[in-house]
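Hi support team,

I submitted a single chain yesterday and got back a structure, but I'm not sure I'm reading the token output correctly. Could someone confirm the output below corresponds to the sequence I sent? I've pasted both exactly as they appear in my results page.

Thanks,
R.
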Amino acid sequence: MKIALFTDTFLPQVNGVTNTVLKMIDYFQSKNIEYKVFAPKYDDLAIPDSVEQFYSIKFFLYPDCRLAFPNFFRINKAFEEFQPDLVHNMTEFGMGKAGLFHAKRFGIPSISTYTTNFSKYLKYYNWEIIEDFADRYISGFHNKNFLTLCATAGTEKLLRSIGVSRIARFSRGVDTDLFSPAKRSMEFRKAHGLEDKVVFSYVGRIAAEKSLDILIDAYCRLHDIYGKKTALIMTGDGPCLDLCREKLPHDTVYTGFLTGEDLAVAYASADVFVCPSSTETFGNVVQEAMASGLAVLGADAGGVGENIRHGKTGLSFESGNADALYSDMVSLLLDENMRKALAAEGRAYALTRSWDSVFNELVEHYRFAMEQAEIKLPA
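Hi R., thanks for writing in. Yes, this is the structure output for that exact sequence:
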């Protein structure tokens, strides 16, 4: 089996899509599945021969991501040499359009994955006027693929509402060895003055579409009353970083962008994870926080809401409701037993979410698409 993977986000940009692509590559290598990645070029980053990179510019809605300008002659040559059996498009934009075109040109099936709820993002950047156009574009792109994969039931419902017809589930796993309560570090807590405090944590892009206004409102109230007992860690970077520094209490800890072991330590060294975003198609950070042994508090919308069993693996609050978030933050601050119970259940749930099981299902989707396209598989 040979897979051509098209994505508009790749190293050195690290986000949920990139992390998934990297995990896919690890899985492909472990199963001797041949692959080639077609991705934007960011910097003069050393890349393996299995990755083809193309000139790109910053995406106006999301400057950390790129809009690529694929060279069709190069892709055509790569396809002639590689002879892929299937195209997997991880984006609806530049690289995804190129993947779809070359799948048709070479007579092989293409599968797409819906990873980002761009329509919901538009209002945060004052582009609501093009929401209908965006929905038509998204549905048109995905319907040209044999199958569209999404992570949750809520996302599937959204896709069907805009006219996407052939949909299957492609969930996400979590690395429970990397993200683990064992990574909790008293040195980290001491270095940031957190030794005797209940530490709340946010991990992710620091941007308007993550509903950080809700977090700022709720946490400032919490800090006004319980400031000596609590602290907040903000892990990540983004356009709203200066706003957070202005609005949040002065003792808020900003770690910047972290990956790998540093990220795992930052997670595990907190006590409660807060995810106010209602725009996530899945919310990888929720599973990472659960795996790290944190009590999780998240909005009851999108992928975040579906990852939390309220009162079991975490607490869900009404999306967009700062009062509800504040109330739950107070409860978790004052009730250590509740924090421990939610953390234990969350960790147990995370242990069931292995990447191998997720990708085994993905390969079955590949096989089905290839069989339907009457491509003979090797024995």
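A quick pointer for reading it: The chain has a mean pLDDT of 91. Let us know if anything else looks off.

Best,
Support desk
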